[in-house]
């Protein structure tokens, strides 16, 4: 690997975890380089508008990342938005699109809040959590062949057509998700909702599964 590029990407990941910004010294300490090296890396990222420096000389992510992110799975997000909006309004709960980022993690790519619900759960896209925790990851795993070490919840999701988890990603929150049928070469993804109460699990699960199938049909 390129050590310089690796350090630069580490800075971006570090800043993503600290939205209020960090000083050059703090960045240098966190990624394990000399302050001079950190300063040089930051100046390069600034030149590409990937990070910025405020009046207090604290570094945070820059607007250039927005331009880069717009093309990431753009077709997937464009097709998913109306489906998620309809799902959120139907279930009156926050809907989300989650994609598998690596062998061990998934990331929330899109979050849509309901327009007519008085109370709902709110969170930002971009959150990362283990693929084997939370309904979205379990739903994605359920679209794959069974493995010897998979959780019983994955097999249950495979049989029901949707996965459910409680408090595994956010405490007091219940997630219900269904895997999106995979397109060739496409990202493994799941559509789901976050609710406070799952007494109506079957109805919500059916709505989530239908939304996932609709998105899958559009992607094929």
UniProtKB/TrEMBL annotation:
<dbReference type="InterPro" id="IPR005471">
    <property type="entry name" value="Tscrpt_reg_IclR_N"/>
</dbReference>
<dbReference type="InterPro" id="IPR014757">
    <property type="entry name" value="Tscrpt_reg_IclR_C"/>
</dbReference>
<protein>
    <submittedName>
        <fullName>Helix-turn-helix domain-containing protein</fullName>
    </submittedName>
</protein>
<dbReference type="Pfam" id="PF01614">
    <property type="entry name" value="IclR_C"/>
</dbReference>
<dbReference type="InterPro" id="IPR050707">
    <property type="entry name" value="HTH_MetabolicPath_Reg"/>
</dbReference>
<dbReference type="InterPro" id="IPR029016">
    <property type="entry name" value="GAF-like_dom_sf"/>
</dbReference>
<keyword id="KW-0238">DNA-binding</keyword>
<dbReference type="InterPro" id="IPR036388">
    <property type="entry name" value="WH-like_DNA-bd_sf"/>
</dbReference>
<keyword id="KW-0804">Transcription</keyword>
<feature type="domain" description="HTH iclR-type">
    <location>
        <begin position="2"/>
        <end position="63"/>
    </location>
</feature>
<feature type="domain" description="IclR-ED">
    <location>
        <begin position="57"/>
        <end position="220"/>
    </location>
</feature>
<dbReference type="InterPro" id="IPR036390">
    <property type="entry name" value="WH_DNA-bd_sf"/>
</dbReference>
<keyword id="KW-0805">Transcription regulation</keyword>
<dbReference type="Pfam" id="PF09339">
    <property type="entry name" value="HTH_IclR"/>
</dbReference>
